[in-house]
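dude i think i finally got it to work??
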Amino acid sequence: MLRHTRKRTGTDFVEPELPITPMLDMSFQLLAFFILTFKPAPTEGQIMLSLPKEDGGGQGAPSPAVADAPVHYIVRVLATDDGDIGQMTLSQEGSAAEPKELKSGLHKRPDGSDMSMLEVYQKELSDREPQKQPMKLTLELPPRLSQDNVVRLVDTGTSAGFTDISPVPIDKKNR
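look at this
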C-alpha cells in the first residue's frame, strides 16, 4: 500500500505587535490618580461623644449647650452727597425687633452737647451684652460713603469686640 503522505505547510507563529510599555505607563498613571483622589466614606453608625472633663464622671450637672452660630448684627449706613454718614440703622439678624435707627440728637455727651453719628454707633455697639460666642458685624455701606468713614466704622466695630466684620455694598434694589 501506498501511503500517501501529505506535506504540511507550516505557518510560522506570528506574535501580535502591541506596544505594552505605553499601556503600563497609562495604568500606573491611573493607579496614582485613583490613590490620590480616593476619599473613603465616613464610618456608618459613628457616635459623637462628649465625655465629662471632671474626675467625678457623669455626676456633675451637664453644662447648657452653647449655640455655634455667632450673634450677627447688621448696620445699614446711608451717606450724604458729600460722603459723610447721613443715617444709620442697627439690627440683629433673626430678631423680631425692628431695626433701631441711630440718631445723633438723642444721645448727649457729659458736657451736654449732641453726640456725632459715629459716637452714637460706638455707644450702641459697646452697650451690647458680651457674648461667649464670637460676634459678627455686617456693615451695609453705600458706594458714595468716604473711605475715611468706612475705616472709622470698621475700627469702631473691632474695638467693640466684634471678631468678624464684613463691609458689603448696599443692594440697589433694597435702598
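Residues 138 and 166 are 5 Å apart (CA to CA).
im so relieved honestly
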